């Protein structure tokens, strides 16, 4: 009874607070939490956490909205920002590439882009400060994006803008709990209550794909919306659960929250406006099990009866997927929610893919040059969508950022369609290149391609030379190689929006709002690892001494060869007898001096001594002057 | 023979397939690579500055001459076939000019020996004329051949140097000035050749030192006073004639204005002259590209501590200039030989050396076959060059392609090569000095 009473007291207090606050406008600070669960075709499960905090205007005090973020927005004049920490790669073939979740997946490592509300001259400096602020905020080395070799300003390949967008990626950044903890700190309940309490570290970091995102949008009136989302693909822990063997002998796991996260949900975060869990059953499953799918049918059964069912309609008004909604407000400690799915019959289905699978790989061997190939494999999506005529075409936009040490020859672009070489102008509609500058800026390649619909595969090949770096520019593990960030391929003619016509206007769900947005279908390619040659790191002294020796040898011996005449002249002047070689003459002279000093009448001795004295004095003066100058 | 050499090049270009010579570090440097030129041309066509992207570092003139040829691809042959044909022609012209220069030198030598009455006592060890030897050496030198076939722009740079020397030898001031301005514009280092060219125009081609003539004159006056007219004419030999020099200076000025105006027209919409100087001369002087070549500076600057970098840049660049004056003073009576020594020094110490530079000075070396007949260490040098040119690709392959060797292997061949060149320069200079002394001794006896 005690917890219930405490809960009651708390909610009363909240009510009082809400009544006491003058409520300046209808839109106050809000927080919502949502979780989407979806079974994936390859026996895995996807969980997508989505938290939205919003504030009508940045203020000195915030009730729910994190103050650090509002400071960030005010200080750096951010109009949009997205920061993602990702581990693992989204499997576009089996996990889908056309739905809102999979088009919002991120490349491995850290990716940051921001649109600034500033004049273009100040943007680069602001970006540098922003990276430092974010790296402090998230305990990550985002500050490596500060260097001008790490970020670029794509014009239309990423998101069309007026030159106020900056984009940077760190493919090698490792993501771990130290990044999650500060991220959770931005939530009003952290991971103590509500949906975020499911984030049991050992289970979420065990997954195949883990992407933690933070997206900021500011509206014209100054309101800030902070979307935090975490997408994980997990293998359900089915050691205890029942396994159902499908036709091909692989177990089809039945899972629940308990299996996925080792936790059950016992109530919502009290300050959240809405707290919901959705279980999404995809089109592929529904096509098998029949359109009128209830939560318990002959193929599968959900462990708990949903509070509501939402049906998505595709562009032909045919039902495609179903969302079973659970309102977390109805559950508490005594009656925790452990939603799950139990399979009754083995099912094989597939998710709808993007129009092309984009792959990228390196060609060539050795450490001098190579080629990057970007290949597109058709998924015949346009046939499924109808509209297949012979002269139709599909647009694809490619954004690729090359670090400077990958010196791309843009004139070497070759395009092969279905294995045969094509003229570039046939496919390439628009191209924008910002070539890289050595040790100064990365190269950016943006291309708008138009492929014929009937095409099965296309390959784009670019040659590059590998750069040679100064020893200080290599990272500590130089022989591991260098990463080229993922290329982004988007298909502007396809969008991933979903329609849920039956929703009533009172039903507010930021997650579904995101799903309804018209987002272009995007996919990221693999990160490439380019090995670069290394010099010998232990050699600097040897190299300096060897080189200087050789140069001194050249200088000394050439000068010696040139000044030989002096001896000859003197010998000619002194002794009429021919004495061609210099050394015997010198030796003889020395001997002569030693043997008989009176012969030289001591006259050459005193000038030599004087000269020597002068020389010594001169060197001493130079040394003193140098010492004085270098000290001052 | 010359036709056979051209034929051999054509066979290599047309039927040799892609030998991948264009990406060999020995053949093409960041300055001369034709691939980079093609990239620069592409950037220019895309209405960007050809210098953006740190790819192209050559002249805008080459860009507009060779650029259109690189973009035409013909199936079957390798990509830059038209350029290669141009280079074959350029090589042939250069060889012919070397031959003509050699002939001028030969005539001058014959004349001066005759005036010294030494024509019989100094017999030429080389039967053929020096010009023929030099041009054949230039044409059949394997390094010239790979430079020509391996699509890089060094043949054009070499041609300009040869044009300059030929123009100066035959006292064609405008031609010499053109060669000088173009060579300096293309690769900066030939700028130091202004001394030999001025001497050539002022004093005429190589002669024995003036003192020999003086001695000859004095001994002649002792022996035979009637021949006084001849000795005065010989004395006139040592005096500089200012007219062609001034002519040359004027033409240098005209040509450089012309070249600069052309460049600024070409770079009108992208970059401009400031960027051109930064990206060509600046790139040469600051050794920004650390990719391996047959020199030693790339590895030096890849390894040297950053705070010493500017110091060593100054030292290495000064090293070329240091020797200019001493050599000019010592060898002023042999300006052509002086030009050869300067090219050899530049080929050894420049920031991005390639086989093409060596090809040039080895070709010019042939011009002095008679004078340098008593050179020492020729056997050692000959096999040293062969050894280095065989070992260097092997070491490069071990390091870059197989990964079984490391950078030190390749650097060692670079060091050995620099040493060889040092020996060559020192030996040629000292044997030339010896030759002059021998002449003097002959006069005296």
TrEMBL record, chain A:
Domain of life (superkingdom): Eukaryota
Lineage per the UniProt record: Eukaryota, Viridiplantae, Streptophyta, Embryophyta, Tracheophyta
Parts of the chain that traverse the membrane: 541-562, 612-629
PANTHER family from the UniProt entry: GPI TRANSAMIDASE COMPONENT PIG-T, GPI TRANSAMIDASE COMPONENT PIG-T-RELATED
Organism per entry: Lolium multiflorum
Gene Ontology process terms (BP): attachment of GPI anchor to protein
GO cellular component: GPI-anchor transamidase complex
InterPro entries noted in UniProt: PIG-T
Alphabetically ordered keywords of this record: Membrane, Signal, Transmembrane, Transmembrane helix
Secretion signal span: 1-28
Name listed for the protein in its UniProt record: GPI transamidase component PIG-T
TrEMBL record, chain B:
Pathways per UniProt: Glycolipid biosynthesis; glycosylphosphatidylinositol-anchor biosynthesis
Signal peptide start-end: 1-16
Pfam families registered for this protein in UniProt: PIG-U (PF06728)
Keyword annotations: Endoplasmic reticulum, GPI-anchor biosynthesis, Membrane, Signal, Transmembrane, Transmembrane helix
Keyword Flavoprotein assigned: no
Topology of this chain in the membrane: Multi-pass membrane protein
TM ranges: 79-101, 180-203, 248-268, 280-301, 307-329, 336-352, 380-401, 407-430
GO cellular component term, pick one: GPI-anchor transamidase complex
Domain of life: Eukaryota
Main location: endoplasmic reticulum
InterPro entries according to UniProt: PIG-U (IPR009600)
Subcellular location: Endoplasmic reticulum membrane
GO biological process: attachment of GPI anchor to protein; GPI anchor biosynthetic process
PANTHER family tied to this protein: GPI TRANSAMIDASE COMPONENT PIG-U, PHOSPHATIDYLINOSITOL GLYCAN ANCHOR BIOSYNTHESIS CLASS U PROTEIN
Family indicated by similarity: Belongs to the PIGU family.
Protein name: GPI transamidase subunit PIG-U
Organism: Lolium multiflorum
């Amino acid at each position: 009874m005690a917890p219930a009473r405490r809960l009651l007291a708390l909610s009363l207090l909240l009510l009082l607070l809400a009544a006491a606050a003058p409520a300046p406008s209808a839109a106050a600070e809000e927080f919502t939490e949502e979780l989407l669960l979806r079974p994936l075709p390859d026996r895995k499960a996807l969980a997508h956490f989505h938290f939205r905090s919003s504030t009508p205007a940045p203020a000195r005090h915030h009730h729910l909205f994190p103050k650090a973020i509002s400071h960030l927005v005010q200080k750096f004049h951010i109009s949009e920002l997205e920061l993602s920490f990702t581990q693992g790669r989204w499997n576009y073939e089996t996990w889908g590439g056309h739905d809102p979740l999979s088009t919002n997946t991120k490349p491995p490592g850290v990716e940051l882009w921001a649109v600034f509300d500033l004049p273009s001259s100040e943007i680069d400096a602001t970006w540098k400060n922003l990276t430092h602020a974010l790296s402090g905020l998230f305990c990550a080395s985002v500050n490596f994006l500060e260097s001008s070799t790490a970020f670029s300003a794509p014009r239309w390949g990423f998101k069309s803008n007026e030159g106020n967008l900056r984009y940077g990626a760190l493919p090698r950044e490792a993501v771990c709990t130290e990044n999650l903890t500060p991220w959770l700190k931005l939530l009003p309940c952290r991971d103590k209550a509500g949906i975020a309490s499911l984030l049991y570290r050992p289970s979420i970091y065990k997954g195949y794909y883990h992407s933690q995102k933070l997206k900021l949008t500011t509206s014209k009136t100054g309101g800030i919306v902070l979307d935090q989302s975490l997408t994980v693909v997990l293998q359900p822990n089915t050691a205890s659960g029942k396994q159902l063997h499908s036709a091909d002998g692989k177990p089809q796991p039945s899972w629940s929250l308990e299996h996925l996260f080792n936790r059950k949900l016992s109530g919502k975060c009290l300050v959240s406006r809405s707290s919901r869990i959705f279980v999404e059953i995809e089109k592929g499953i529904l096509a098998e099990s029949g359109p009128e799918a209830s939560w318990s049918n002959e193929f599968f059964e959900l462990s708990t009866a949903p509070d509501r069912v939402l049906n998505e309609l595709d562009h032909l008004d045919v039902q495609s997927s179903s969302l079973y909604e659970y309102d977390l407000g109805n559950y508490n400690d005594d009656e925790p929610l452990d939603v799950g799915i139990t399979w009754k019959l083995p099912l094989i289905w597939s998710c709808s893919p993007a129009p092309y699978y984009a792959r990228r790989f390196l060609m060539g061997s050795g450490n001098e040059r190579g080629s990057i190939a970007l290949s597109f494999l058709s998924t015949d999506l346009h046939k499924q969508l109808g509209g297949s005529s012979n002269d139709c075409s599909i647009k694809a936009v490619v954004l690729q950022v090359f670090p400077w040490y990958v010196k791309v020859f843009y004139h070497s672009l070759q395009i092969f369609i279905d294995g045969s070489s094509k003229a570039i102008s046939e496919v390439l509609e628009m191209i924008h290149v910002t070539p890289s500058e050595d040790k100064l800026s990365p190269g950016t390649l943006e291309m708008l391609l138009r492929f014929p619909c009937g095409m099965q595969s296309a390959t784009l090949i670019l040659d590059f030379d590998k750069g040679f770096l100064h020893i200080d520019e290599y990272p500590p593990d130089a022989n591991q190689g260098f990463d080229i960030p993922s290329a982004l391929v988007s298909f502007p003619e396809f969008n991933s929006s979903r329609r849920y016509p039956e929703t009533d206007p009172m039903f507010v769900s930021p997650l579904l709002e995101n799903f309804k947005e018209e987002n272009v279908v995007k996919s990221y390619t693999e990160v490439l690892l380019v090995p670069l040659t290394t010099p010998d790191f232990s050699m600097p002294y040897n190299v300096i001494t060897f080189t200087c020796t050789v140069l001194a040898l050249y200088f000394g011996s050439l000068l010696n060869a040139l000044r030989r005449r002096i001896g000859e002249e003197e010998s000619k002047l002194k002794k009429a007898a021919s004495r061609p070689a210099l050394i015997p003459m010198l030796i003889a002279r020395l001997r002569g001096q030693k043997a008989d000093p009176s012969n030289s009448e001591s006259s050459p001795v005193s000038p030599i001594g004087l000269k020597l004295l002068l020389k010594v004095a001169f060197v001493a003066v130079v040394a003193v002057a140098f010492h004085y100058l270098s000290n001052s | 023979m010359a036709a056979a050499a051209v034929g051999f090049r054509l066979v290599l270009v047309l039927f040799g397939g892609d030998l991948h010579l264009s990406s060999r570090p020995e053949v093409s440097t960041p300055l001369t690579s034709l691939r980079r030129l093609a990239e620069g041309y592409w950037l220019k066509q895309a209405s960007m500055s050809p210098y953006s992207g740190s790819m192209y570092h050559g002249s805008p003139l080459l860009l507009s001459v060779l650029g259109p040829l690189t973009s035409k691809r013909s199936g079957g042959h390798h990509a830059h076939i038209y350029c290669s044909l141009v280079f074959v022609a350029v090589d042939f012209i250069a060889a012919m000019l070397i031959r003509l220069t050699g002939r001028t030198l030969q005539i001058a030598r014959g004349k001066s020996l005759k005036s010294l009455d030494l024509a019989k006592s100094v017999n030429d060890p080389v039967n053929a004329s020096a010009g023929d030897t030099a041009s054949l050496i230039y044409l059949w030198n394997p390094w010239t051949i790979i430079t020509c076939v391996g699509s890089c722009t060094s043949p054009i740079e070499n041609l300009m140097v040869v044009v300059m020397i030929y123009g100066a030898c035959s006292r064609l001031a405008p031609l010499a000035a053109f060669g000088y301005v173009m060579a300096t514009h293309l690769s900066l280092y030939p700028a130091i050749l202004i001394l030999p060219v001025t001497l050539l125009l002022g004093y005429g081609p190589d002669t024995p030192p003036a003192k020999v003539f003086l001695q000859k004159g004095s001994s002649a006056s002792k022996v035979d006073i009637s021949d006084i007219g001849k000795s005065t004419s010989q004395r006139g030999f040592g005096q500089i004639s200012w007219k062609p020099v001034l002519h040359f200076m004027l033409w240098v000025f005209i040509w450089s204005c012309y070249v600069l105006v052309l460049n600024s027209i070409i770079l009108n919409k992208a970059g401009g002259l400031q960027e051109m100087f930064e990206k060509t001369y600046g790139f040469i002087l600051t050794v920004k590209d650390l990719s391996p070549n047959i020199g030693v500076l790339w590895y030096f600057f890849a390894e040297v501590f950053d705070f010493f970098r500017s110091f060593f840049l100054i030292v290495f660049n000064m090293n070329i200039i240091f020797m200019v004056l001493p050599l000019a003073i010592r060898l002023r009576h042999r300006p052509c030989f002086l030009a050869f020594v300067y090219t050899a020094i530049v080929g050894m110490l420049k920031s991005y050396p390639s086989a093409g530079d060596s090809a040039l000075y080895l070709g010019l070396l042939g011009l002095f076959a008679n004078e340098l007949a008593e050179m020492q260490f020729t056997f050692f040098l000959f096999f040293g060059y062969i050894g280095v040119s065989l070992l260097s690709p092997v070491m490069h392959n071990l390091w870059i392609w197989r990964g079984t060797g490391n950078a030190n292997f390749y650097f060692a061949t670079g060091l050995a090569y620099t040493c060889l060149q040092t020996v060559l320069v020192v030996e040629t200079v000292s044997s030339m000095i010896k030759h002059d002394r021998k002449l003097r001794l002959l006069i005296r006896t």
